[in-house]
Amino acid sequence: MSQNRLQGGPRRRYAGRSIEKLVNIISKNTFNNYPYDTLDAYRPHDNLRNRPKDTDGLLRRGCTVSDIQALEKRLGVTLPEDYKEFLSISNGLDSIWDGQNLVDYLAGAQDVNWQEVDFLEGNELPLLSSHEPLAGTGNMLEWPNFEKSRCICLSGDINDEDRAGHLFLIGQDRLQPAKDYFFKTYEERNDTQRRELDRLVQETYGSMENFKNLEWGLISWTAWDFTVYPFNGIQDFLEQMAEASLRQERPWLNMFEPRFRKLANA
């Protein structure tokens, strides 16, 4: 198993599924696996979670072509094709179970907007997993830091207290310096280190060529994790959320609702 992981990357249960199939899987898994009764005990009685009525309860009516064109005009950009495909299938998704909390990563098109991300200032913008390369290998990456930046927030208003989790599209003004740093550093590393970096790039983006041609970065961030996670577009993000939403409640963990900060064993 470990040899397969090193050679081919982590197993991806939902790799290659269509976006339509993925959003249906996420909705079904959230409906079946989120422990509403258990975790509602830690919320105020007058502010319980809205429960989906069935396995399709997270889905919304998709956007029309004119809706998506209006969003692009309002933002002043051409959005990634996979994100536009997602919007045509479902105009956002209601709260997703990620195996630990409900997260609100995908707002409706009407709520998508440019946001100042001052709270990320001074943090690195990693384009690969922050857990690798492994410490002690001499192959660690020190990505450029966020400076005062505006990103497109696919999660809507970052100040909305009723929403948890953020998903950001990163434009070339922040993406290109991070890519430049990686390729400069890559040239300075030895053959063994380059092979490790090759593997990490392949795991995230499929190939080094895809990484070089990346037009938009996509990252998630939550206020309780403080870790930036990169994705190879909405397709990759949905595949990973479909996998995460399969997880059952693990009562030995300190489970909490991010907004209320109440631990299950408190």
TrEMBL record:
UniProt xrefs under SUPFAM superfamilies: SMI1/KNR4-like
InterPro entries in the record: Knr4/Smi1-like_dom, Knr4/Smi1-like_sf
Gene3D superfamilies in the record: SMI1/KNR4-like (3.40.1580.10)
Domain Knr4/Smi1-like, first and last residues per copy: 62-240
Protein name (Swiss-Prot/TrEMBL): Knr4/Smi1-like domain-containing protein
Annotated organism of origin: Fusarium musae
